[in-house]
Amino acid sequence: MKIQDNHSIKRIYNPSRKEFLELWKQYQPFIINGVVENWDACRKWSNDYLINLCGNTAIPVDVYRENFFEEYKNYAFDKSYKKSEMKLKDYIDTISTNKSGSGIAYYLAQIDFEKYFPELIVDITYPEYFLRKPIIYFWFGYSPTTSVSHLHFDDPHNVFVQIRGRKRIILFPPIDYLSFYTAIEDIDCMFHFSKVNPINPDVESFPKFPWQEKIEVIIEAGEILYIPPFWWHHVTAINENISLSFMYSPKIEDFVKQERLLSTTLRIASHDIPHRIRKLFSSLYHYSTIVK
After folding, report:
1. Cβ 238 vs Cβ 42: under 8 Å
2. Residues with Cβ within 8 Å of residue 75, at least 6 apart in sequence
């Protein structure tokens, strides 16, 4: 097993499950090499190949103006993303020939891989680090300004696999929830999104944000990035690219085996639960006024 430090993030080469878990229990992100580059997906998933197998598949695509991510109220609230159904071949044609037109951007983001692309499952190998079945999300983007996942965290373990192209990923440990400046004061906000854009530091507006804790990595085709639950991350495409997220919901034993996962979960819950209660009562009140 080889491990080396690289800009505050560790790399491990083709780990066994035991070696993976030894690093995993530290509750830190790390990169895995020597695994994905052997998948057929890395060799085969050209645009022509995808069109030949899945070109007529109707897929939900995010549609928004190219300046969408300049204002947090556009992306940090429920129902803020507009979806448009397109055939995969039409989506590829649009992004390949830059036909988005008039500042409109398209992003094939976080769709159920097994549901929409069963023909492609044979080209991947399910990681066996967690010995349970994941939910797999498929991402297909093309531009740093339009293929963006703003600063947020996820509840599951995220085994993030880069198939084509490159992505820039900025990570922050879950030190203090309030220091990430979510819109928690608004009951309609998505609790796991931050107002902060870590690409353009604004210390004056966000003085408590943990800028000094930033870990930045460029993930290349054929690499895996493990992102622990509740770690904040911001993702942008560097060029046309395809990624898969293997999401594993934590089991009870994970809270014992993985350092700081339980304490982090409890800290997040102290903010999340009251927020959800306020949201529930607001929905019930809104419903009662409609019924009347």
Report:
1. no
2. 68, 69, 81, 150, 193
Q: Is 38's pLDDT higher than 60?
A: yes
Residue with tokens 């400046």: 181
243 vs 11, 32, 60, CA distance in Å?
19, 15, 16
pLDDT of residue 279 exceeding 70, the answer is no
Q: What is the CA radius of gyration of the chain?
A: 20
Between CA 139 and CA 105, with CA 197 as vertex, the angle to 5 degrees is 45
Instruction: Tell the residue number behind the tokens 């197998």, with chain if given.
Output: 53
Q: What pLDDT shows up at residue 81?
A: 65
Query: Which of these, 7, 8, 30, 1, lies nearest to 158 by C-alpha position?
Result: 30
DSSP 18: H
Is the confidence at residue 282, as pLDDT, over 60? Answer: no
* Nearest alpha carbon to residue 84 among 64, 113, 57, 56: 64
- Flag whether pLDDT at 211 surpasses 80: yes
Helix ranges (H only) for 59-184 are 72-75, 88-96, 113-116
Give CA–CA dist 87/233, Å, rounded: 30
Structure tokens at 72: 């947090």
Angstrom distance (rounded) from CA 104 to CA 16: 44
Give the closest residue to 95 by CA, choosing from 140, 55, 64. 140
Residue type for position 186: D
| Structural domains of the chain, with CATH | 3-291 (2.60.120.650)
- Per-residue pLDDT band for 287 (boundaries 50, 70, 90) equals very low
C-beta atoms surrounding 28 within 10 Å? 19
The mean pLDDT of 81-100, rounded to a whole number, is 84
Both tokens of 207, joined, read: 């003085």
What is residue 209's DSSP assignment?
S
